[in-house]
Write a structure and sequence with these properties.
heterodimer; A: mainly alpha; 0% strand; B: rod-shaped
């Protein structure tokens, strides 16, 4: 997102605000959904986050990227939502293992299902870190700002997420098709 | 698995928001920015001002240098011509204020 678009959004330009929504809503929603697992809750979190950010966008000083600010709100709102359901401070790191059928020459639909399963095999924090790093193109330092986790922890999560994805694809022999 | 393919994979598998009107819902929750109270100054006002100012200058010139040759009716005619734009502007502003007041109070 260009600085001038942020500037326009700061001045209340609806098109610019819409542009920001379009740019980040998919990733924000995916992250929230990974944590709360309920579509309606995830949507509420993203909606609240955007409203919060837009209402205070005039105070935004460009000290960090706009998306860093947004994802931090999404992350903490997701944790808050989770906290309502389970004891505070406990962040799930549960992994889901899915027994998939192995086979050569996977059809597109099966491949897509496998990819989704691979995504689901990531823990919430691994999912968050790998998406912020690759899709939002955040640096480790920025992810540290978003999550308030240590650099070492983030690197471990990133490594684990990458490895899990690679292992998953190797296991199901679809890596060659994807690369 | 290289970074680009992983990035592409993650991008293709982002979840989509179920609501089609999500953007609209967010934007409609925001307070509408009030437009700054713009002083009513139509484009033709400077021209009217210029016209009135020229008339007054002409009037002042005639009054100062016209001397006994100045005909009373010419003086009156120019005075009227110079003052008419001023009245137009005043009436324009009063009307505008009344319209704004009516719109505001409903």
């Amino acid at each position: 997102m260009r600085n001038e678009d942020i500037e326009k959004a700061r001045n209340g330009d609806r098109d610019a605000l819409n542009g920001l929504l379009e740019s980040y809503k998919g990733l924000a929603y995916s992250i929230a959904l990974k944590y709360v697992r309920q579509e309606a809750d995830a949507e509420d979190i993203v909606q609240e986050a955007f409203i919060k950010v837009f209402l205070h966008i005039r105070k935004f000083r460009n000290e960090s990227a706009f998306s860093t600010w947004l994802f931090k709100i999404v992350y903490y709102e997701s944790l808050r939502q989770l906290g309502k359901r389970k004891p505070a401070g406990e962040i799930r790191e549960d992994n889901h293992s899915y027994e998939m059928q192995e086979g050569e020459g996977l059809a597109e639909k099966e491949k897509s299902t496998l990819i989704r399963e691979a995504m689901r095999s990531l823990s919430e924090n691994e999912y968050l870190v790998i998406h912020l790093f690759y899709l939002a193109e955040k640096t480790i330092r920025e992810i540290e700002q978003i999550t308030d986790q240590s650099k070492a922890n983030i690197k471990v999560l990133l490594y684990r997420a990458r490895k899990k994805m690679a292992d998953y694809f190797d296991k199901h022999r679809i890596s060659k098709d994807l690369i | 698995m290289n970074d680009e393919s992983l990035k592409q994979l993650l991008k293709e598998n982002l979840e989509e928001l179920p609501s089609g009107n999500f953007n609209h819902r967010v934007l409609s929750s925001l307070p509408v920015k009030k437009e700054a109270n713009r002083k009513f100054m139509p484009m033709d006002e400077p021209l009217i001002f210029g016209f009135a100012f020229s008339g007054l200058l002409l009037l002042a010139g005639l009054f100062l240098f016209g001397g006994p040759a100045l005909n009373g009716s010419i003086f009156l005619l120019i005075a009227v011509l110079a003052l008419v734009p001023v009245f137009i502007i005043l009436s324009n502003r009063i009307t505008q204020r009344k319209i704004s007041h009516r719109q505001f109070t409903g």
